[in-house]
Specification:
The protein is an alpha+beta fold. The protein is built from 4 helices and 4 strands. It is about 30% helix and about 15% strand. It has a two-stranded antiparallel sheet. Strands 3-4 form a two-stranded antiparallel ribbon.
Length: about 120
């Protein structure tokens, strides 16, 4: 079913209300949220359906938070059970660090300074 036949807005909310006796997957199908695979099969687009229902209810989703690149550095680290603090490769790549780079560690009050040596 083409995306342009999908119900949105008030029409979607009304149809969802009418079909409340059906399973969510069937409701999504009845509202036009079906995708065709490359092999010709069809599947229910529940993600698109839920996004449309939320949008129809006025819930704004931050589209930039959808990240298809995998994990993204959060700039937080946790001390492990063994006492080690791991700085992940995402940070070292952002800083342009290479294998063998050396740092001096200086402890402060509730902070750590890593000073790269030349």
């Amino acid at each position: 079913m083409p995306a342009e036949t999908r119900l949105v807005g008030k029409a979607l909310l009304q149809k969802v209300k009418e079909l409340s006796h059906l399973a969510k997957r069937e409701t999504a199908k009845q509202c036009g949220y079906v995708k065709t695979s490359t092999k010709g099969g069809t599947r229910t687009d529940l993600s698109g359906f839920y996004d449309a229902v939320l949008a129809a209810k006025g819930v704004k989703l931050d589209e930039t938070s959808r990240d298809t690149r995998g994990k993204v550095a959060t700039y937080k680290a946790t001390v492990h059970k063994n006492g080690q603090l791991l700085i992940g490769s995402a940070y070292t790549k952002d800083m342009g660090l290479k294998e063998g780079d050396v740092f001096t560690i200086k402890l402060g009050y509730k902070h750590i300074h890593l000073i790269q040596e030349n």
